[in-house]
């Protein structure tokens, strides 16, 4: 009887999960004109550039190391992550910070025509700061920066998939 209830509960959970429309994140469906791309304005061998390179390749884009005729161009105009004070405690010391990330970009197609004028994607993260745990909070901030960059890359890839 106990096994029957477990099986019934699992069936109901799977049915509700399927019914809610949940889907695992899949690759972005990019236009054919964007399948060969040259990325400029960012170093693709480290940091957010490396994540962008990996994301583009995962989505079936041939990322070129140098420009070739017929390739679309993704120009990263700006990439920055700022840390701002979000709140101050009663002792006049910072109690919360906010991380704000921005990537501004422009896309030209394989004919050299601008298909996406300068646009930006933004993401935010906030965290509590405790001066008694500086090392732990520095590690937390680094992890949040990585998550923020991943969110920016995913947003950029979704925007690229909307270009047809």
Structure description:
- This protein has 164 residues and is α/β, with parallel strands linked by helices.
- It is built from three helices and five strands, in the order αβαββββα.
- The protein has a five-stranded mixed beta sheet, with helices on one face.
- Helix 2 (47-58) packs parallel to helix 3.
- The mean pLDDT is 85.
Output the keywords.
alpha/beta, 34% strand, 164 residues, 36% helix, Double Stranded RNA Binding Domain, five-stranded mixed sheet
Give the CA-based shape. flat
CATH class: Alpha Beta
Order of adjacent strands in the largest pleated sheet:
2-1-3-4-5
Gyration radius, in Å: 21 Å
The largest sheet, given as strand count, sense and whether it forms a barrel, is: 5 strands, mixed
CATH topology: Double Stranded RNA Binding Domain
What multimeric state do the chains show?
single chain
Strand tally, please? 5
Low-confidence stretches: none
Topology:
Elements: H1 2-19, E1 36-40, H2 47-58, E2 62-64, E3 72-88, E4 94-108, E5 114-128, H3 134-162
Helix pairs in contact: 2-3
Outline of this structure?
The protein is α/β, with parallel strands linked by helices. It is 36% helix and 34% strand. It contains three helices and five strands, in the order αβαββββα.
